[in-house]
Design goal:
It is a single chain. The protein has 15 helices and 37 strands. It is α+β, with helices and mostly antiparallel strands and about 725 residues long. Helix content is about 25%, strand content about 25%. Among the domains are: about 55-385 and about 505-525, no CATH class; about 615-730, Neutral/alkaline non-lysosomal ceramidase, C-terminal domain (Immunoglobulin-like, Sandwich), CATH 2.60.40.2300. It binds 2-acetamido-2-deoxy-beta-D-glucopyranose (12 copies). One 2-acetamido-2-deoxy-beta-D-glucopyranose binds near residues 389, 390, 477 and 585.
Length: about 725
């Protein structure tokens, strides 16, 4: 057992510790000194501040709720790797909601960022329906943006279009319900906690955390355009800080372009990846002394134009030979594209997740602390449904272009250096199922000449727009949505924009506002919003058909079409003509009943002479800090716990408090220091292993026990208890 902690302090460390103590004392004294005059100042100012505010303040509410869903057997959404099925939990998933209302409550907008792969149309339709039944016309299609962080380690199964049903093993109701309920609950909490408050915006660069994973595509953009930027990724993070009128910190939203794929496609533990780790660090710091997932401060790290942006900053290498495969085809001399993978910067994927997450957290914290540019001014929200198969784009004075019926190109199947070998079409184990036979037959259908022509130069692998059995394969009716909160504009984008696509869209929205006399708008792109339509590249990037181009499903003019549509929304806001916007055709709601290839949950069984929760493999009596305490129990299928919102955690780590004689819960399963692994045995038997990765800090010395919490298929809850063990220094 390797002890990762240093057990002796070097001279340098002693000096640093002494300095730290001294600095802390000095800081405290300064704070006290600062605080006294400030207090009288603010009380003196309060009436004028509050008064000025009546027009200036908003009403603000923040909320967070669990949306984890089933953590066993369900495919994880993102890599579409059929072998990547959940087998436990590393961190819980949360929906984070933010409501901003005009001071007189005449208008409000809602922004939600959820720790899931992406929003789906099905999720959005169900959330909006629930909100309508609870709140009437307060929260609607028009003023609610739902965005996914794009973690690739969250359960799949909440889609209604066939292509996603395929990679999700169907529509998995427990997955869908957990997310719908989590999102609605986070909005409920934000709604109940609305208070008068202020908004501040700040921006800064995050270094050493991203690379462009399709640099060859990026290079296709005109040189004059590329020369305007210093990097082939957007390094800017935008932070929106929320405080109440007394200065109490409520929360923040950060937007930054990065794929949460620090965890690779071999990971089986449900978690929120690098951006989720950043939220965790921020919320743990602000909700001091509470378990993760508790406390009123809410920190969302939302997605943006991350289409071609990878966190695996060591770059692509051939895993067999070690040489770089940073070439136009991400191809290795031996083994081809399947061998070309990117990783880093850590020693393993969890380490990499934490390094990138920490970078995001530290920058956001700095921007949050220093934010001083206040956002004031009215709220506006616009929303349209658009049939993206049929948008005519005015390219210039003489030429128009047209979007196409959805189709995926060949490179789609190749995946990316963040996750190769995207899709396995020959799912032999699924034969005999009528559903899958229909799909097989449908797959033989050839794309029409019109679709082929429209998508050129994309060679079509799947003409998804022309297949509708058993359900349409891809959405055609897509949400475009734009909010403004004073000088902040939030463009809700229904997919993944590449770096340059995002820059063009932001610029177009900003210049549209300017052309109607509104200067200086701060435009942010919120990614993975409302409905998933894969990627959007620039026209130039599309020509070389790497993964992102092949996944631009509405053809070469997709970006131009979106720019035209978002300009239209900006114009409506700037010219006060929102009411004239066409609503567009409503998306379909598909009645998909129990279409799932997920195995049923067998009745759970305990081994002979054992019962649920019995210890199978005990902890040791003693661990040093930096080691991993682990214990294995007789388990039950965690899917039984998926929809029970009162079931808060699969595990606790408790410490014995010597003075009070009580056991105190130090950790739950939302902690990034704990892991819960579930493995299925034969005939309903299963094992649950709990790991506690003991941090290298002195305050952890003492006596502990570990407990798992589960439910058996017959719906009785049980827990287990490990022996007591001691954590020591040596
Ligand atoms: C606050 O502002 C309003 C107008 O916005 C004004 O009518 C009122 O007199 C002000 N109150 C105080 C206490 O200054
Ligand atoms: C939200 O408001 C409710 C009352 O409506 C209160 O009980 C709760 O503590 C508040 N929650 C937070 C996180 O502030
Ligand atoms: C995923 O990361 C682990 C390290 O955590 C590494 O051993 C493995 O090779 C990686 N797999 C892929 C497919 O990148
Ligand atoms: C496509 O849209 C145009 C208007 O932009 C409309 O005239 C036409 O009928 C639509 N075509 C189809 C097939 O829906
Ligand atoms: C969208 O437009 C296409 C092409 O104009 C048309 O064939 C299709 O039926 C429309 N889709 C929906 C869902 O209305
Ligand atoms: C308009 O766009 C088309 C297609 O991109 C191009 O061929 C043509 O040269 C452009 N015309 C002008 C005047 O820019
Ligand atoms: C595709 O799936 C089949 C059946 O599950 C399996 O035998 C085959 O190895 C898979 N191929 C790839 C490339 O993963
Ligand atoms: C499609 O194009 C091919 C080759 O250009 C032609 O032979 C065929 O007749 C066309 N099909 C239709 C339905 O127009
Ligand atoms: C699936 O649907 C069929 C028919 O609609 C119904 O009889 C059956 O009970 C359903 N099964 C489950 C597990 O919901
Ligand atoms: C179960 O326990 C009983 C009574 O203690 C014992 O006689 C029997 O051998 C045990 N069976 C097994 C399989 O351990
Ligand atoms: C949810 O779980 C809790 C504790 O595990 C249990 O007491 C409760 O009965 C469960 N509720 C439902 C609806 O299953
Ligand atoms: C608790 O207190 C007893 C008596 O003072 C001491 O012997 C024991 O080592 C303490 N345990 C821990 C975990 O500190």
């Amino acid at each position: 057992m390797g002890n990762k902690c240093k057990t002796h302090f070097s001279c340098l460390e002693v000096v640093l510790i002494v300095l730290l103590v001294l600095m802390t004392i000095i800081t405290l004294i300064l704070l006290v000194l600062l605080f006294i005059p400030q207090k009288s100042k603010t009380t003196g100012k309060k009436s004028t501040l509050l008064n000025a505010t009546d027009s200036k303040n908003y009403r603000i509410g923040v909320g967070r709720a669990d949306c984890t869903g089933p953590v066993a057997e369900v495919p994880l959404m993102g890599y579409a790797n059929p072998d990547q099925r959940a087998g436990g939990i590393l961190s819980r998933l949360y929906s984070r909601a933010f409501i901003v209302a005009e001071p007189d409550d005449s208008k409000r907008v809602v922004f939600v960022s959820a720790d899931i792969g992406m929003l789906s149309q099905r999720l959005r339709l169900e959330v909006i329906k629930k909100l309508k039944s609870k709140y009437g016309d307060l929260y609607t299609q028009d003023n609610v943006i739902l965005s996914g962080t794009h973690t690739h380690s969250a359960p799949a199964g909440y889609f209604q279009y066939t292509i996603f049903l395929l990679s999700s093993k169907g529509l998995i109701k427990p997955s869908l319900n957990a997310i719908v309920n989590g999102i609605v609950k986070s909005i409920d909490i934000a709604h109940q906690n609305m208070t008068r408050g202020r908004l501040f915006i700040n921006k800064g660069l995050v270094e050493n955390s991203q690379i462009n994973r399709s640099p060859y595509s990026y290079l296709q953009n005109p040189e004059s355009e590329r020369n305007r930027y210093s990097s082939n990724t957007d390094k800017e993070m935008v932070v929106l800080k929320m405080v109440d009128v007394n200065g109490k910190e409520l929360g923040l939203i950060s937007w930054f372009a990065i794929h949460p794929v620090s965890m690779n496609n071999t990971n089986l533990l449900v978690n929120s990846d690098n951006v989720g780790y950043a939220s965790y660090l921020f919320e743990q710091e602000k909700n001091k002394g509470l378990l993760p997932g508790e406390g009123s401060f809410v920190a969302a790290f939302a997605s943006s134009n991350l289409g071609d942006v990878s966190p695996n900053i060591k770059g692509p290498h051939c895993i067999n030979t070690g040489e770089s495969c940073d070439n136009p085809n991400s191809y290795c001399p031996v083994g081809g594209a399947k061998m070309c993978m990117a990783a880093g910067p850590g020693t393993d994927m969890i380490d990499s997740t934490k390094i990138i997450g920490q970078n995001l957290y530290l920058k956001a914290k700095e921007l949050f602390t220093l934010a001083s540019q206040e956002i004031t001014g009215p709220l506006h929200s616009t929303h349209q449904w658009v049939n993206m198969s049929n948008v005519t784009v005015q390219l210039n004075a003489t030429h128009t272009g047209k979007t196409c019926k959805p189709a995926l190109g060949y490179s789609f199947a190749a995946g990316t250096t963040d996750g190769v070998g995207f899709f396995n079409f020959t799912q032999g184990s699924l034969e005999g199922e009528l559903f899958w036979e229909i799909i097989h037959n449908q797959l033989l259908g050839k794309p029409s000449n019109e679709t082929k022509e429209c998508h050129k130069p994309k060679p079509i692998l799947l003409n998804t727009g022309e297949i509708s059995l058993p359900y349409p394969w891809h959405p055609e009716i897509v949400d475009v949505q734009l909010f403004t909160i004073g000088s902040l504009a939030i463009a809700a984008f229904p997919g993944e924009l590449t770096t340059m696509s995002g820059r063009r869209l932001r610029e177009a929205i900003k210049s549209e506002f300017e052309s109607h006399g509104t200067q200086g708008m701060n435009v942010v792109i919120a990614g993975l919003c409302n409905v998933y339509t894969h990627y959007v590249t620039t026209y130039e990037e599309y020509q070389v058909q790497r993964y992102e181009g092949a996944s631009t499903i509405f053809g070469p003019h997709t970006l131009s079409a979106y720019i035209q549509l978002f300009r239209g929304l900006a114009k409506a806001i700037a010219t006060n003509t929102i009411q004239d916007l066409l609503k567009g055709p409503e998306p379909p709601f598909m009645y998909i009943t129990n279409m799932t290839l997920l195995p049923g949950v067998l009745a759970d069984v305990a081994p002979i002479n054992k019962t649920f929760g019995d210890v199978l493999q005990e902890v040791r009596a003693q661990y040093r800090v930096g080691e991993v305490a682990e214990v294995t129990f007789v388990g039950a299928n965690p899917r039984n716990s998926a929809e029970n919102t009162t079931h808060q955690t699969f595990l606790t780590v408790e410490k014995y408090e010597n003075i009070s004689g009580n056991w105190h819960v130090m950790y739950n399963d939302a902690s990034w220091d704990t892991r819960f692994h579930w493995t299925k045995g034969f005939l309903g038997r299963s094992k649950a292993k709990v790991e506690w990765h003991i941090p290298c800090r002195i305050q952890y010395f003492g006596h502990y026990k570990v407990q798992p919490f589960l439910k058996s298929a017959l719906f009785h809850s049980f827990k287990g208890t490990s022996s007591v063990f001691e954590v020591v220094k040596f």
